[in-house]
Design goal:
With 64 residues, the chain is mainly α. Helix content is 53%, strand content 6%. It has four helices and two strands, in the order H-H-H-H-E-E. It has a two-stranded antiparallel ribbon. Strand 1 (58-59) and strand 2 form a beta hairpin. It holds the Pfam family Phage_TAC_6. This is Phage tail assembly chaperone.
């Protein structure tokens, strides 16, 4: 028995999202999950600080 409700997922993709069947089948499960409203938790302050440290807007005297 499959863990996924393929008919229900296909119906959500085609009817709900307006995808063509080929577009639906070309999606990864993560892409489909995101399109159907799933996703990760919002970025918190510590995550933002880590991104800012890794990708600063300025380096020394240079502007990017």
């Amino acid at each position: 028995m499959s863990r996924f409700d393929w008919p229900g997922l296909l119906r959500a993709g085609v009817r709900g999202l307006g995808l063509r069947p080929a577009e639906f089948w070309a999606l990864t499960p993560a892409e489909l999950h995101l399109l159907l409203g799933g996703g990760s938790a919002p970025l918190g302050r510590s995550g933002l600080d880590a991104l800012m440290a890794a990708y600063p807007d300025k380096r020394g005297d240079q502007d990017d």
